[in-house]
Amino acid sequence: MLIGSFCEQRLTQVEHLRNIEHDCQRLANARAVMLLEREQERKREELQRRLADENRRLAQKQTYHKDYLGKEVYTNPPTAAYFGKFNTSTR
């Protein structure tokens, strides 16, 4: 009887230790997943910042280019005399 009781206690202890190890492993895995998710979120935010910066830079460049075209390139609008030159002769 003493041996059976000892074996049962030992099995209970082993099972308890196994449960503790399992819980520790689960907590470690949950922490690792949480850290990975945080890192992914940081990377996503950094990518969003870079994209927003690039979009601002491109918008500024486009504005400068439109201003340049309006002030420097398209300064001589076509007149009626220009359009009158078309369809005036046959082949």
Description:
This protein is mostly helical and 91 residues long. The chain has a domain at 11-64. 85% of the residues lie in helices and 0% in strands. It has 2 helices and no strands. InterPro entries: RIB43A (IPR008805). Pfam families: RIB43A. Residues 37-64 form a coiled coil. Microtubule inner protein component of sperm flagellar doublet microtubules. Keywords: Cell projection, Cilium, Coiled coil, Cytoplasm, Cytoskeleton, Flagellum.
Overview in brief:
This protein has helices at 2-73, 80-84. With 91 residues, the chain is mainly alpha-helical. The chain is rod-shaped.
In DSSP terms (H or I, runs of 4 or more residues), the helix count works out at 2
Q: Sum up the overall morphology in one term.
A: rod-shaped
Number of strands: 0
User: What proportion of the residues is helical, as a percent range?
Assistant: over 70%
How far is the N terminus from the C terminus? 122 Å
Element pattern in H and E = HH
Largest sheet: none
C-alpha-based Rg, rounded: 38 Å
Strand content: under 5%
Class based on secondary structure composition and strand pairing: mainly alpha
Q: Could you tell me the mean pLDDT?
A: 92
Subunit structure: Microtubule inner protein component of sperm flagellar doublet microtubules.
Keywords: Cell projection, Cilium, Coiled coil, Cytoplasm, Cytoskeleton, Flagellum
Family: Belongs to the RIB43A family.
InterPro entries: RIB43A
